[in-house]
TrEMBL record:
FMN binds at T97, Y151, S222. Coiled coil: none annotated. Transmembrane segments: none annotated. Keywords: Flavoprotein, FMN, Monooxygenase, Oxidoreductase. This is FMN-dependent oxidoreductase, nitrilotriacetate monooxygenase family.
Amino acid sequence: MTKPLKQIHLAAHFPGVNNTTVWSDPRAGSHIEFSSFVHLAQTAERAKFDFFFLAEGLRLREQGGQIYDLDVVGRPDTFTVLAALAAVTDRLGLAGTINSTFNEPFEVARQFASLDHLSAGRAAWNVVTSWDAFTGENFRRGGFLPQEQRYERAQTFLRTAWELFDSWRGDEIVADKDTGVFLRDPHAGAFAHHDAHFDIAGRFPVPRSPQGRPVILQAGDSDEGREFAASSADAIFSRHGTLAAGQAFYTDVKGRLARYGRSPEQLLVLPAATFVLGDTDAEAQERADVVRRQQVSGQTAIKFLEQLWNADLSAYDPDGPLPSFDPRPGENTIARGRASVRMYRDPVATAREWRALAEAKNLSIRELIIEVTGRQNFIGSPATVAATINEFVQSDASDGFVLVPHVTPGGLDEFADRVVPLLQERGVFRTEYTGSTLREHLGIDRVTA
C-alpha cells in the first residue's frame, strides 16, 4: 500500500535579534516599526502558513562588557506585537516566546487566554527557560534558580497555567434576554495551586478561550528539552541541518511520546531553516555564498569565536588561523545574554573539532565560523527547494519548517510567490485554510479539559 503524502507545515519567524539578518541589504527595513511585523505576517498568511513566530529578548546582549552592536536592535514586547497583529490578520497563528523563569503563571495564562480570544483561537506559546544571572538582573532574580532546576520550574509553570486555563469549562456563561449574562457555575475560574515553586489561589478572570489552551511550542534540544516536549508540547523546534540528523532527532523525539500516552502525530517536529532562491541552482548558490559572508563578517567571526573560547580574541585576524590555546573553562563571562553559548557543553572538545575541521579544509577563522554556524539552509531554484523540503517531510526528518528569511520584512515574499505554489501543485500544502484556529491548522484537537 502506498504511504499517503504528509501535509507540510510552514511557519514564518520574524528574526529580530540574531545574525541571520543581513542588515546591509538595501531591502532591509526596521525591526521595530509595526509595518515590518505586518508585512511579514500578512505575507505568511497570503501563503497560507500555519503561524507567525516572534522570539523574545529580555536583555540586550553584551560581549566584553559592551553592548553587542553587530546584531542588536532591541525587542518590543511580544504580547503587544502579537495582539496588534491579531487585528490585521484573520487565520494566521500567532506564536510568541515567553519565559517561564522570570514570569508568573497567572499573568502569562491571562495574557495568552486574552490573545486567544482577541485572535479567535490563533495563539501559541513557545515555553522557554532562562538560567543566566545576567538576564535575571533585569528581574532582581539573578542566579536564583540553579540550571538543573530550570526545566522542573518550566514543567510546573506550564502545568499551573493549564490549571488556570481549565478552571473554566467553557459553558459557564449564559446569556438570557431578560436577566442578562450570568454564570451557570458560581465556582467558574476558581483555582488553588501549591508546590515548591508556586503558592497561588484565587479566581481566573478570563473565560475559556476558543482553543481551550494555546498551542504549546518547545525549543530545547537537550535531553531535558526533548523530554519536556514529549510530555507537554504540540510542536518542537530543532536545528538539525542534514536529512540523517533530522531523521535521528525525529525518531528520538517521537519515540518518547508513548510513555506519556501520546501518539506520534500529537507532536510536530519543525526545524528552523533559511533559504536562498535563484532562477537556477547555480545562481542560488552564488547568492547564498554572498549572503553567508554578509551574515558572518570578520568582526562577527571573532565575536563568535570569543563565545566558545571565553576570551578576548580581538587581536586575532579573522582571515588567519584559530588560537593555539584551549578555551577557558568555567562560566562564560565574555558573551552574556546569548542562548548559543549554552550549546557548547564541552568547549574544549568543540574547539578540537573545529581545529580538525579547519585543518582538513584549510579554513580561516571566518570561513570556519561560516561553516559551523550555518543552520538548515535550502538553496536552489524554486523547484529544487520545493522538492528538497518535501523530501525532508516525506522522509520523516521533519513535519515542516519554521522559515527564517535573511531580509526583514520582505524576505519571505519570493518564497511565498515561487515555492509555495509548487508545494501546492504536489498536493502537500494547503491552497486555502480549512479551519480558523491554529490547532485546526496543525491538526491538533481543541483542549476541552
